[in-house]
Write a structure and sequence with these properties.
The chain has 2 helices and 16 strands. By secondary structure, the protein is mainly beta. Strands 11-12-13-16-15-14 form a 6-stranded antiparallel β-barrel. Strands 3-4-5-9-8-7 form a 6-stranded antiparallel β-barrel. The longest helix has 14 residues. The protein is globular, with a radius of gyration of 16 Å. The protein starts with a strand and ends with a helix.
Length: 279
């Protein structure tokens, strides 16, 4: 089986955001959205104006509280992201179609409920896709916004000191493989998986120098379609959140012995900082 990227989530009836032609990204990136499970017991309603949603649990994930992860951003092409600065979003390269001026993307921030009237919505002005990105590795990109969003940002790891332990993932992606995006932000925790173990699952598809893996051997918890570009993060030595990964790809969602694959942020921290300075 060929691994799939956790790609932008295609639009579904009643969905709260639209998707561009990015749904035609390479198979390697048909990634997961906030995986929050191999099987969803119920899907959250996405109908506009719906006041309530199913409270049935999702395998491996729970709903995030308002303000819990204030740096989280939903992008209109169906991906996630995090505020690198108040005016720059860090996301996945496979979520964008290249670099240059771009006013087609809308970033939604400040809420866990995408239908909330208090959602902050800001258009993009520029996109910078990782130099040299060709569909394998280097899966990061920056999106400059038309104006700053006055919310906390998520610092990125610039050393490998935090590339271990237990990580948190969050997103509005599907709660089951092949499912639809969610109205409410979901969260889950996943453990670090060594390069050797991850290569046993993915072979030469993995780029260990540029990617980091996380998940349970038994599956059941993962990111999924629509979570692409969102952050994987943990607490640093000062107990602050620090980003160690970007949702990139994987074989399906939450399958046993197929952990999620994330861009290793520490590897690209210098390049990300330099690229942001040009925006």
């Amino acid at each position: 089986m060929h691994p799939m990227t956790r790609k932008a989530q295609p639009p579904t009836k009643g969905s709260v955001s639209t998707v561009s032609n990015l749904s035609r990204t390479p198979l390697r990136f048909l990634k997961r959205t906030l995986a929050v499970g191999a099987v969803a017991l119920a899907a959250v309603s996405l109908q506009p104006g719906s006041a309530t949603a199913s409270t049935a649990p999702v395998v491996g994930g729970t709903r995030a509280a308002q303000g819990e992860f204030p740096f989280m951003v939903r992008l209109s092409m169906g991906c996630g992201g995090a505020l690198y600065t108040q005016q720059i979003v860090l996301t996945a390269a496979h979520c964008v179609s290249g670099s240059g001026n771009n006013t087609s993307i809308t970033a939604t921030a400040g809420v866990v409920d995408l239908n909330s009237s208090s959602a902050i919505k800001v258009k993009s002005t520029k996109v910078l896709q990782a130099p040299g990105y060709n569909g394998t590795g280097k899966d990061w990109a920056l999106i400059k916004l038309a104006k700053p969003i006055n919310l906390p940002t998520l610092k990125i790891a610039d050393t490998k000191a935090y590339d271990n332990g237990t990580f948190t993932v969050a997103g509005w992606g599907a709660t089951r493989e092949g499912g639809s995006q969610q109205r409410y932000l979901m969260k889950a925790t996943v453990p670090f998986v060594s390069d050797a173990s991850c290569q046993a699952s993915y072979g030469s598809s993995l780029v260990p120098a540029e990617e980091i893996c996380a998940g349970f051997a038994q599956g059941g918890v993962d990111t999924c379609q629509g979570d692409s570009g969102g952050p994987m993060f943990r607490r640093d030595s000062a107990n602050a959140w620090i980003q160690v990964g970007i949702v990139s790809w994987g074989e399906g969602c939450a399958r046993p012995d197929f952990p999620g694959v994330y861009t290793e942020v520490s590897t690209f921290a210098g390049a990300i900082k330099s690229a942001a300075a040009t925006l």
